[in-house]
Design brief:
Chain lengths: ~375, ~375
Amino acid sequence: MKELLGVINLDHELDKLNELTYFRCGAAVPFASRYRLIDFVLSNMMRAELESVGLFVRRKYRSLMDHLGDGKSWDMNRKHGGLFILPPDWNDPTDTSIGDLQHYHNNLDFFKRASAKYIVFSGSQHINTVDLQDVFQYHLEKGADATLVYKAIDQLQPEHDPCLRLELNDDNLVTEIHQEKHHPNVYLDIFIMEKKVFLEQVEYCIAHGESFFFRDVIQKNRANFKIAGYEYKGYHAVINSLESYYKNSLELLKQENYRELFQKNPVQTKIKYEAPTRYLDSANVSNSLVANGCIIGGTVENSVIFRGVQVREGARIINSVIMQKCIIEENAVIENVIMDKDVHLSKERILVGDSKRPFVIAKSSKI
Amino acid sequence: MKKKEMVAMLLAGGQGKRLKGLTKSLAKPAVYFGGTYRIIDFPLSNCSNSGIDTVGVLTQYEPLVLHSYIGVGSDWDLNRKDGGVFVLPPHERENGSSWYRGTADAIYRNLKFVDQFDPEHVLILSGDHIYKMDYNAMLQYHKSRNADCTISVIDVSLEEASRFGILNTDEDLKIYEFDEKPAKPKSTLASMGVYIFKWDVLRKHLLEDGEKANSSHDFGKDIIPLMLEDGNSLYAYPYVGYWRDVGTVSSLWEANMDLLSDHPPLNLNDPNWRIFTRNPNQAAQYVAPEAKVSSCIINEGCIVHGEVKHSVLFYGVEVGEGSVITDSVIMPKVKIGKNVRIHKAIISENTVIEDYMEIGIERENEDEILLIDNRSKKRKSVAAKTI
């Protein structure tokens, strides 16, 4: 769809996943056995057939770049357009911009060159399957200056606390944007806006010393702008803390969540060439997600296992998330643990965390 | 084109009649194997891992799936600026058109293709065997003997020998005789259908053979004996390792079962010799609370509620509650209902097995491997029954 340009802005996202984000940004955190958080928003953008997608990164983006490559996995390696990874750049001595406006100012060419008339912005912390084409059509029908995507949450969780809320009138126009904990309409960090208006506002904001586009343009101007709310009803999870990461990982073991997230539309990710998973005669696996390339000889219960993990005979893994290429040796026991990539756990070791506060093992440790 | 030391020619036109329903609308090299692969992944990955970057794939029978599967070859790292993978179907020429008449004829008709790379050597491969082999090591052997042709051989049992092309050699493995499927084999060195030729020597013999009206234009039957007659130097290259011809339903089933022991003879998890394939990109497999999985291979996208024992599940297979699958191969996207029992069968792609079906239970002939697809399931001749 040439009318819509995609922008993924990671600048305002805090890397609050402790050990998991010491050396990578939140968007690059592995999730659901074989994906990284960024895959979900990129897959949504791919499905909407956007011609170009710009990704603004500032910190710890080495592993993210490695994962994204030339964008081929999301069909974004194009002659025209495609995926643009745009790291921070401060070559302009006259630049006075701050905050995420700095990104926009330094990459004006990216916006100007794109043939699209509208822009869809998104973050990476809200896992969803939003149909961006549908949001765009809704935006046009509403004749809004901006359209914001939200979900009405039945049971609010601690991870929703930092999220913005939308209050709407009968016409589904946004009347308030605030952070009141008990309001159910959680903003999904996705909005659509006309490019011309966006660029005018960027210029105005920089001239007036503002720093964050969403806060300073949309949130502050809700009275001057016509802002529509688009209600999304599908699968949704927010990953903005270790606790929410752990909880939502295990929630995928519920059939309805698994089907809603994966079966309607495939989620794309960087391709690895792993053999299918091999279960040995001694394997005992239940209620678990397992990616390819694993060799499992032990017990795995209620856990999420990433690619290339080896669980040797007699080992027990319960309520845990085990990332890529970990090796769990004979008779080791793991319960309520998040284990980052390449961890080697020796024989007969026992690691037990709390079900509310899982024990996290940093990448490449040998225990 | 840049001059290449060796170009590989992969014969992938075979119909594979003995694979019955599996090759009804699919060339044999495109048949599924090992939970995620197709047979052709093995020679293509071997080429890629051996550093051979120019591969011609000769197709003929039902080529659609094969052509779209190979694509530009990026999955095997064979999308190169200089070289890469080329699909070569038979084509019409000035003096008429015909299908490839034999393995040698297929190469003969593509002389121009090989010539443009001006190679020293040509590697001939077939697309119907499961094995991991370093063709570069074979090339070094071929060069060290200054051979005109080197044939890769595997030691088979004397009983099996009459199924293969058998090579009779002297002590230093120089070949003096080639028997195609001999009734009384004189040795147990069987040809694997992997040949390296000096291109100029092969070229000359292909031109000669191409003119012969009574030739079957086959490497084993015609070219090799002709070269021996002409006094060329031919050597056997002994291969040690896992090698399986998967030309029949039962051998395909057996090769799949070979993957299921705790220490399988064919290691697919070796990071230094990966078998590349087109990734179907499916979500992680889900093993339900009531499921039991042991001695099996399961691919991504599967949802298992029942019991899977000593079996291979390809991607996107669903197994309902109470179902038990033993000693079977379940191909992609098969949906198995509840309380189904399947034993010693191959279930073809996209087949739907209804609740309470029994397949291969209480069979008369234990050795026979049942092949089930959506059509055969309805026929009475299949030992499938509903209870």
